[in-house]
Every structure is written in C-alpha cells, then in structure tokens.
Amino acid sequence: MGGTVTLDKWPVLGRHERAAVWLRVWTDLGRAPRTIDAYARGLAEYLEMCEREGADPLTVDRAHIARFVREMTERPSRRGANVVSIDSGAGLSNATLQQRLVPVRLFYDFLVEEGLRDSNPVGRGRYTSRSLGGGYQRGLVPRLTKLPWIPTEAQWMEILSVTANEPVRNRVMLALAYDAALRREELCSLRTNDLDPAHRTLRVRAETTKNRLERVVPYSAPTGVLLSGYLAHRATLSRARGPLFLSESRRNRAEPLTLWTWSKVVRRIALTADAPRFSTHTTRHLCLTDLARMGWELHAIASFAGHRSTDSTLTYIHLSGRDLAEKLNRGMEQIHGWRVETLARLGEQVPGAINP
C-alpha cells in the first residue's frame, strides 16, 4: 500500500522499473514511511533531471551527477520569504543537499549489486586528495556543520510569555518537548498509554524514534500539572484511548494532531516572540545543553536523548563561549590550587628546605 501511494506521489519512479523495484526493497525491509518518502523524493528529482536531459540513468557518468548537484545548488527556494536561513547560499540548505544525494547513491549501489553497472558514479561522495598525502577526504557537496541555535535567557522568556497565551494542548506539548528532549515525531506520536503519571515518566516507542531505540524518560512536576489539565480537556474531545494530542479544528476535530500542524504552531510562536530561528527541534537542543551545563555525564545525556553514539550527542550540545569560559576558569582554579599544594608538600619533603 505504502509503495503505491509513493508511486502516485512521484510518478517518475513508476516510469523507471529499476527505481520502483529499489524503492519496494526498502519498503519491504521496514524502513519508516518518512524515510521512504525522503528516498522517493530525492531519487524522483534526480530521475526527472535525467528525463529532461534525455539521459539514461543506467549509463550516466560522474559528470552527470555533478550537473545534478549544480542544479540543486542553483535552485531558487520554493518557500521564498518563509526561509529562516539558508547556509548553502541557494534554495536548499546544506543538509538538504546532502539528503538528496543519499537515495541517488543508494540507488546506484543497488544497480551495482544487481550487475547492471560496474561502478557507482556517486560512490560515497568522496575522493582522496593526493596533494595532502591521501588522507584528506572531501564530499561532492562540502558538508557544513553548524552549531545549533540556542535561545538566550531573554529570548526563552519571551517564547514562554507568548506560549502562556496558547491553548493548554500547545503549552503541555512545548513543556514535554523540552522536559523529555523529544523530537517532533516522538512528541506528536505519543499515545495515552505511553504515560505513567504516578512516576512522571513517558515511554518513547521504538517505532516513533529516528534510530528505533525505545526509551523511558521523566518529566517535571510543573509539566505534570499541565498534563493533568490537558487530559481533563482532552476528555471533552474524546474519551477513547489512542493518540495523546488531538486536533481541535472544526474540520479535523478529535483527529490525531499532525506533524505539520505542530510545526505551524511553533512557527507562529517563534514569529510572535521575535525569535524566528526557534523551531520544533530547538527545545531538544536546549534540554540536552542544559543537562550538560548541570554536569551530566556524556553517556547519560546520550541515553536520555536516545542516541546510539555519544558522537551524535556532541552535535546537539551547544555550550556558549561564556559557559566554556566559566568551565575553564573553574578548571584553572583547581589546577592552580593543586600545583600550589604540591609545591608546598615539595618544600616539606626536600631535606634542608628553608621554611618561611
């Protein structure tokens, strides 16, 4: 069923038999629907360019892939004035450019495995620079790694001030998103039976997570009060068990709240609070950063966040220059004290030392 819907959405995939087979393989392997849709979109855009240029995707070379990259980098943004920031200098962010290349590379990996090609024109998107001794690697698209945006205390207070005027559902969603460091899909996919109010914990089901790792995370007492109020309000919409957060619009009343509706809510809050960079993922960054500020061990933060590797956790944690300066000062004070202490001991231990 999912494959049929995807082909209806991206008909170009149906015109290329091997592309349709490749996508069906990933669907049968149980990849998440959003992953399948992202793969389909990236490959569809590439195949559409092949059709425009009259190129056979089974026989193209690396130069053709380079043209696809150039087309993406020069593409104007479809969102126009709604773009918050574009780090690629074009209509697609650097991360999106990388994302579009992934399915193209995987598609050619599949063709090589099937014996339909001798090599992958995308490869791993890397080459080795001989001029630097063969140890430096560079991708087809330079990968930009930017620090996540974290609101200042003043910006955060303004965001909370705006949120205070939101319906109870939106207030509790923002509180849970921060308290439990939830991704957007994890938050919107919560069900009533995922909650354990007695212990103030919630279960993040494996199928809703990015890396299919289930975890149980706590939430604070103030969030518990908000949640209790929302559950009473939710009962006026529906008493049935199921999705925790429900739509209250006249058209979709009592239907599960969609990811896009929550994104629109957060975007409205961001613009009203004059914090346009605030997004559905900011609360996750902020929570993990606050845990680091409180001195949590890195592996504990990784477990809380649901990361397989602490490398992923490091990209989420953003300590400001002031935080780092304070840590350095505290560390230097400890080092200085230790050195003074050891010097004092040295004076006591050296025979013939002159005491003041």
Automatic annotation (TrEMBL):
Pfam families: Phage_int_SAM_1 (PF02899), Phage_integrase (PF00589). One of its GO terms (biological process) is DNA integration. GO terms for molecular function: DNA binding. Coiled coil: none annotated. Keywords: DNA integration, DNA recombination, DNA-binding. Residues 146-329 form the Tyr recombinase domain. It comes from the Bacteria. Residues 17-112 form the Core-binding (CB) domain. InterPro entries: CB, DNA_brk_join_enz, Integrase-like_cat_sf, Integrase_catalytic, Integrase_recombinase_N, Integrase_SAM-like_N, Tyrosine_recombinase_XerCD. PANTHER family: PHAGE INTEGRASE-RELATED, TYROSINE RECOMBINASE XERC. This is Integrase.
